[in-house]
Amino acid sequence: MDLNEMVGRVLVDPTGLIQRAFQPVQDQLRRNGTIPIEDNKPPEELLAAAVGAWLAKKFAGEGSTADEPLGDLDDSESTLYQEIVDRDNVLAAALGACPCWGQHIDCRACKGAGTPGWQAPDRQLFIEYVRPAVRAATSSSPAAG
After folding, report:
1. CB 114 within 8 A of CB 107
2. Distance of CA 76 to the CA centre of its chain
3. Which of 51-55, 72-76, 79-83, 89-93 has the highest mean pLDDT?
């Protein structure tokens, strides 16, 4: 079984996964006032607007420091943010993806080609994170029964 097929089985609902992953970020940005409360826009547009606003503040010399990438985060929020970044990097390595996930054509490492399977997955991380998900997905599938 190739990695793309496994990831496809694990990520049966990629849009739902992305929405669940971005919901806490979106909620935090709304609480901080970084993005307005507008439920009629999709999450990716709200996040893009928030990141754009943050970048504009950075270029203007206002706002947060480099240690606080999304505004004025308290210590627990900053720690949580770093944990999420670290977990994202570990999952990328487990799937053989670049840390940018192939989303940035200007990435020095992959030039935008670093999607899952771009390189050999880290064997230990694959065993720890991906294999259990594949087992769960295949054991609950109708074909496995």
Report:
1. yes
2. 19
3. 89-93
